[in-house]
Write the structure tokens for this entry.
Amino acid sequence: MTTNLEPVQTFKILIVGESGVGKSSLMARYVHGIFRTQYTATIGVDFQVAIINIGEYRCRLQIWDTAGQERFRSITNSYYRGADGIIIVYDVTDNASFTHVKVRFPDVQNLCDRNVPKILVGNKDDHNREVNKVVLTNDARQYAEQNNLLFFEISVKDNRNITEVFNEIAKLALKRRLNQSENLQNSIAEIRIEHKPINDNSTKNGCCTI
């Protein structure tokens, strides 16, 4: 069966944040549609692939779940190179995880292109959030706006806003790539080669003859 989709666009998407905020659960929920009730810390990085269609483009998302522990930072930092999108996760029931985002964000900006799209995500905003929530929505949204980040509150447990987050990061990554491609084509079109004829008359340049 033929389709009108453009060739596959591959994007490298990183999920970052402090250990325990639910990065692995977020990836598992999105890619496999499952919710893990048991928590296992990621060692280094984990990797999954998802394919979605955005308009006429077929997008292959290479999703990297990076370890949050400090001892793995030297390893995970290298994965920012070539990233097309970054999902920054904190736990709405843990104020320290939000503080970690604030402390770590300048490093994230330095480790990758500042134009790489980034989304701030508050996880564990479950149905009982009125009891457990400590990071207020307005505070997180204000921080996101100050740092030019899109903002979502999600619940991996309740499967809320998961697809929306990945659809949005994929759209932003695709838009950035198309803009880069258009700028490159425009730059090539603007190149002009100047051709200057060679003057064989050596005496014309003030050379004296005997």
Notes: DSSP finds six helices and six strands in the chain.
